[in-house]
Design a protein that fits this description.
Blueprint lengths: L3 E7 L8 E7 L7 E10 L2 H8 L9 E2 L3 E8 L10 E5 L14 E5 L3 E3 L6 H6 L1 H14 L7 E5 L4 H12 L3 E6 L5 H6 L4 E4 L4 H8 L4 E6 L6 H6 L1 E9 L14 H4 L5 E4 L9 H12 L7 E6 L3 H9 L6 E5 L1
Parallel strand pairs: 9-10, 9-12, 10-11, 12-13, 13-14, 15-16
Antiparallel strand pairs: 1-2, 1-4, 3-5, 3-7, 3-16, 5-6, 6-8
Helix pairs in contact: 3-4
Length: about 325
């Protein structure tokens, strides 16, 4: 192992070009932390928020990246063996301490999930945070059950596509939205039964298919589309607010009786590494390896292409997950 590493550093909020590659010392993990040699990491919307200066609690300069996948180099507390394949995510990663946009990262052992897989690193790097968010939204946020109808608002995002794949595997009927006609085929290819072109009145389209309203809805766009998503939902149905693709995440002057349709339930989901049990993660990897489930990857990048990757996620031009191979 070398003494230095290449890492992407953000000195202050700015454009994609504000992400600069530098040589930094390889971090030394204290007891209770794990040093990971990063093989792949996914790009997440929250990292865009950090770069734009929209996130709270971020200190600069900072190596961004709320997730990473790779192999253990050192674990002073003996929590993991050297060479063990692991994923790491959340817990202040890339926010209050340096994260996954690098060749190495040191993270608390509590944020590390072990696994074993022969899948390629690009596929493995796409999965952790995407799966954690999709799985948690369906189970904790929505308590989704087989036979129910599910509306996914923001369907071509990585989490939206992962949620559709998981929901189909669980026996739900999926309605999913996109604003772009050329993305309809991508949603149909992963098994979405009803693709809705988002014209701002998705509720009307959804109720043409399910007159009483959908039983579950996953809101990934933001508070600007949330009222319409609520209107698409049946009495006693549940809407889970998980994503903010529009960068709008607050409701001004919130008056519940006026805002919420009668009998419609609104929840939210924001998980952590502990919310993705290792057996759930391993089962997903095994299902992908067996060809039963798929991983929605838009494309991969080299570390030197990090600005390009951020420009793509900012402009909403990706259908699925963006992955970097450092």
């Amino acid at each position: 192992m070398t003494a230095t590493m290449r890492a992407v550093v953000l000195d202050a909020p700015g454009s994609p070009e504000a992400l600069r590659i530098r040589e930094l010392p390889v971090p030394e993990p204290p007891p209770g932390w794990v040093l990971i040699r990063i093989k792949a990491f996914g790009i997440n919307r929250s990292e865009l928020h950090m770069r734009l200066g929209l996130a709270q609690g971020v200190t600069f300069p900072r190596v961004l990246g709320i997730e990473a996948t790779g192999v253990v180099v050192a674990a002073p507390g003996s929590e993991f063996e050297e060479g063990q394949q692991v994923a790491a995510m959340m817990g202040g990663m890339g926010r209050t301490f340096d994260g996954g946009y690098a060749e190495y990262t040191s993270v608390p052992a509590t944020q590390v999930i072990p696994f074993r897989s022969e899948l390629d690193w690009a596929t493995l790097g796409a999965i952790p945070e995407m799966l954690q968010t999709a799985h948690g939204s369906l189970t904790v946020g929505l308590d989704a059950r087989p036979g129910q109808t599910l509306l996914i608002r923001g369907g071509t995002s990585s989490v939206g596509m992962a949620a559709a794949i998981l929901a189909k595997d669980r026996g739900l009927t999926v309605l999913s939205t996109t604003r772009q006609p050329d993305r309809v085929a991508a949603l149909e290819a992963i098994g979405v039964e009803h693709v809705l072109l988002d014209d701002g009145d998705v509720a009307a389209q959804a109720r043409e298919i399910v007159p009483d309203g959908v039983e579950a809805a996953l809101e990934l766009v933001g508070t600007n589309t949330l009222p319409d998503t609520l209107r698409a939902t049946a009495v006693h149905g549940v809407v889970c607010f998980t994503g903010m693709l529009s960068n709008e995440w607050t409701v001004a002057d919130f008056y519940p009786i006026d805002y919420l349709p009668t009998g419609v339930r609104l929840t939210a989901y924001g998980g952590d590494a502990a919310d993705l049990p290792s057996d759930i993660f391993q089962a997903y990897l095994d299902a992908v390896a067996a060809g039963r489930l798929t991983v929605p990857i838009h494309r991969t990048y080299a570390l030197d292409e990090i600005a390009q990757a951020h420009a793509h996620i900012e402009h909403g031009s990706a259908t699925g997950k963006l992955v970097v191979l450092p």
